[in-house]
């Protein structure tokens, strides 16, 4: 992530961070991929309204595509022999948090909520995240507030 002022020159196709004194560094635009969180985006997830998305954009080619962190609709479980919606992804703000480190990328939905599996309906805003550790090839859900599994 760049901090401070930066300038872009499309004709030179480089991104340069500059201060009042001197140029600090330059990147070739052909190698820059930008991840953009869009928390109110609609995607192809079945029956999900404004679930949010993360876009992967190539700076040099001016195009973006949705990163497929989660392609599923809401989950349903049988509770007392009734097929019950237990997951609520509409308006979850997926992409409100996007972090990267090396090839690992984490994207989160802070407004995701989950219905408990008890007889009396009760929902918790637990949030959920998806993690890719191999450069956006595979994804795993990371939801410690719901599953109780913490990374250690």
UniProtKB/TrEMBL annotation:
Gene3D superfamilies, sorted: Integrin alpha, N-terminal
Record InterPro entries: Int_alpha_beta-p, Integrin_alpha_N
UniProt repeat feature FG-GAP, residue ranges: 80-141
Domain of life: Eukaryota
SUPFAM superfamilies, per the entry: Integrin alpha N-terminal domain (SSF69318)
Signal peptide: none
UniProt xrefs under PANTHER family: INTEGRIN ALPHA, INTEGRIN ALPHA-5
Name of the protein in question: Uncharacterized protein
């Amino acid at each position: 992530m760049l901090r401070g002022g930066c300038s872009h020159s499309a004709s030179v196709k480089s991104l340069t961070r500059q201060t009042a004194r001197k140029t600090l560094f330059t990147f070739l635009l052909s190698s820059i991929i930008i991840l953009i969180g869009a928390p109110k985006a609609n995607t192809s997830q079945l029956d999900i309204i404004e679930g949010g998305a993360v876009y992967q954009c190539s700076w040099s080619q001016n195009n973006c595509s949705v990163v497929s962190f989660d392609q599923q609709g809401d989950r349903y479980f049988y509770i007392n022999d009734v097929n019950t919606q237990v997951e609520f992804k509409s308006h979850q703000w997926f992409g409100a948090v996007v972090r990267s480190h090396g090839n690992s990328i984490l994207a989160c939905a802070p407004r995701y909520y989950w219905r408990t599996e008890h007889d009396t309906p009760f929902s918790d805003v637990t949030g959920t995240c998806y993690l890719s550790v191999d450069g956006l090839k595979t994804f795993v859900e990371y939801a410690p507030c719901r599953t109780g599994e913490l990374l250690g």
